[in-house]
Amino acid sequence: MVILKIIKHCKEFSPALVTGQLLGLDVGSVLEVTNCFPFPIREEDEEIEADGANYQLEMMRCLREVNVDNNTVGW
């Protein structure tokens, strides 16, 4: 399901560069990606970092509330 979410995000905003966060579990030598979410695409560069950090924190808080793995394992 994660790969389908990534493909969908890429297709929706092609040819623009897209980014997002990978969530999951890191147990021993195994890294399991269980979920992901896209970062919003912004036109203006000035407020990207502040808005991006707030969006990321809010998204992870919401995922935690519904018991979804919310450990960052990549982006």
What topology emerges from the helices and strands here?
Elements: H1 2-13, E1 20-27, E2 30-38, H2 48-65, E3 72-74
Antiparallel strand pairs: 1-2, 1-3
Q: Shape from CA axes?
A: globular
User: So, CATH architecture?
Assistant: 3-Layer(aba) Sandwich
Spans of at least 5 consecutive residues with low confidence? none
Q: Output mean pLDDT.
A: 86
Question: Going across the major beta sheet, what is the strand order?
Answer: 2-1-3
* Residue fraction in strands: 25-35%
Keywords: Initiation factor, Protein biosynthesis
Pfam families: JAB
GO molecular function: metallopeptidase activity; translation initiation factor activity
Domain MPN: 1-75
Distinctive features:
initiation factor, JAMM/MPN+_dom, 2 helices, 40% helix, 3 strands, JAMM_MPN+_peptidase_M67A, Cytidine Deaminase, domain 2, 75 residues, globular, three-stranded antiparallel β-sheet, alpha+beta
What can be said about this structure in brief?
The protein is α+β, with helices and mostly antiparallel strands and 75 residues long.
Description:
The protein has 75 residues and is of the alpha+beta class. The chain has a single domain, classed as Cytidine Deaminase, domain 2 (3-Layer(aba) Sandwich), CATH 3.40.140. It is built from two helices and three strands. The chain has helices at residues 2-13, 48-65, and strands spanning 20-27, 30-38, 72-74. A hairpin with a 2-residue loop joins strand 1 and strand 2. The radius of gyration is 13 Å and the shape is globular. This is Eukaryotic translation initiation factor 3 subunit H. Keywords: Initiation factor, Protein biosynthesis. It comes from Vitis vinifera (Grape). One of its GO terms (molecular function) is translation initiation factor activity.
